[in-house]
Structure formats: C-alpha cells, structure tokens
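Need residues for this backbone.
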C-alpha cells in the first residue's frame, strides 16, 4: 500500500482498504508488522450477518489520522458538530450546528455489544474455518473440472476464509455455473455466487456504458466461480455433506 499512499498524499485523496474480518497484524512492504486498520488512511470493516465478525448489520472505519477521524464522526451523524454524548454529558446547554451534509450511520449500543463479544471469539472461529477449509481443499483438489481459489501460505499472511470459492472449468460441463449452483441448492447445500463482475450489472452498463465484453477476465471469473458454506457453526458432518453434494452434482453434469 505504500506507493499508493504516497500518491494519495500528493493528490490530497484517501485510500480505502476494505476488510471483512477482525483486526490482525500484516506485513508491510518495508517488512514491518502493523495492525490492519492502524494506517493513516481509511480502513473499512464490514460486520454484516455473514461476515467473520458480525454486529448483525453495519461496519466500522478506522484511521490513525485524528483530523480525519473527527470528520468521519461528523459525517456519521447528520453532519452535526457535536453528537448526543457530548451534548448530554455537559451540565450546560450545548447547541449543535449542522456544518456539512451528513448521514445516519452511527452504530447502536446493542450492535456494539454483539461485536465486542464476538471479537474475543475470533481466534477460535478462524481456527474452525481453517480446519474445515483444509477438508474442502483435500476433497476438491482430487475433483476434476474444478479448482479452488489460491490462498497465501508464506508465514506472513493469514487468509480470513470469509468465503470458500471454487472455480469451474466450464468447458468440462454440460450446463453453466448457475445451473450447478441451483442443483446444489436442491441438495440442501447453501451454495451461492460471490460475485458477478460489476460491469455486467445494469446500473454500471447504463451509467458508464460498459459492455459485457469490456473486461473479459473479470467476466470469465464472474461466470465461473461459486461459493460453498464455511462457518464456525458447521460440523465436520456438515462439511462432508457439502463435499458429497458437490461430487454428486459435478459428476452428473460433467461432459
């Protein structure tokens, strides 16, 4: 991220780094360890219901830049110069001014309570995800017509395993990816698609005049990938059921 950060300082813009998991350490380009979310730029965390750490809905933005953090807090709550905590903790009347256009993006205390308790469970949750992912890896490495998404194994990076992604070799099957996912759903497996290429969505095509063939690599990936269930709430028996269903469906549709 360092070259990108230097460029943004010259252009007075911000870098957003999106994360779907709890804070961890990462190795920077200079070889130093730092906590994800501890940079001066923006790091965005999603706490949606199916993420590694959930508050049912919502997310968080972190930064080491105090001025930027203050501006984010103003945007978060209607563009007000003071939030409710600042107003009601004072023994004198404090008026708030709307100093910019803002949003209603504050997290509730109930959501925060869920997140704080989940944070302590993250190490165990990730270990379970890793154990189940290894079972998937062993099974699908031996299955023709499909390959798994590569993950770093360098001792410095640890994959969050928010999703377990398989990539079809579509030439080996009589039907497309959507029909395969539909067949897995019929087998009571919560297969899904994450995600379609952005330029294939109507909004981007209408707004930016994108055409389906503009980004062939993204389109190919978007038409070949699908995801399998991978959550700490599963059991090894559930994992075996998913594996059996994938073998059954792919074998039935193979050319």
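Answer:
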């Amino acid at each position: 991220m360092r070259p990108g950060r230097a460029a943004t300082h010259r252009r007075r813009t911000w870098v957003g780094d999106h994360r779907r998991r709890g804070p961890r350490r990462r190795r920077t380009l200079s070889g130093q360890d730092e906590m994800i979310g501890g940079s001066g730029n923006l790091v965005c965390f999603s706490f949606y219901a199916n993420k590694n750490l959930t508050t049912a809905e919502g997310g968080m933005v972190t930064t080491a830049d105090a001025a930027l953090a203050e501006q984010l807090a103003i945007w978060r709550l209607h563009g007000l110069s003071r939030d409710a905590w600042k107003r009601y903790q004072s023994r004198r009347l404090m008026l708030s001014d709307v100093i910019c256009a803002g949003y209603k993006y504050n997290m509730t205390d109930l959501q925060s309570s869920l997140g704080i308790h989940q944070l302590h469970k993250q190490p165990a949750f990730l270990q379970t995800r890793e154990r189940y992912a290894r079972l998937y890896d062993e099974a699908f490495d031996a299955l023709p017509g499909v390959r798994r998404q590569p993950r770093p194994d360098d001792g410095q990076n640890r994959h969050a395993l928010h999703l377990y992604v398989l990539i079809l070799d579509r030439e080996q099957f009589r039907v497309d990816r959507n029909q395969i996912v539909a067949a897995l759903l019929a087998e009571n497996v919560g297969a899904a698609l994450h995600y379609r290429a952005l330029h294939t969505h109507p909004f981007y095509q209408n707004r930016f005049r994108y055409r389906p063939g503009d980004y062939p690599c993204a389109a190919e990936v978007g038409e070949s990938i699908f995801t399998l269930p991978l959550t700490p709430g599963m059991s090894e028996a559930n994992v075996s059921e998913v594996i059996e269903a994938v073998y059954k469906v792919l074998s039935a549709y193979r050319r």
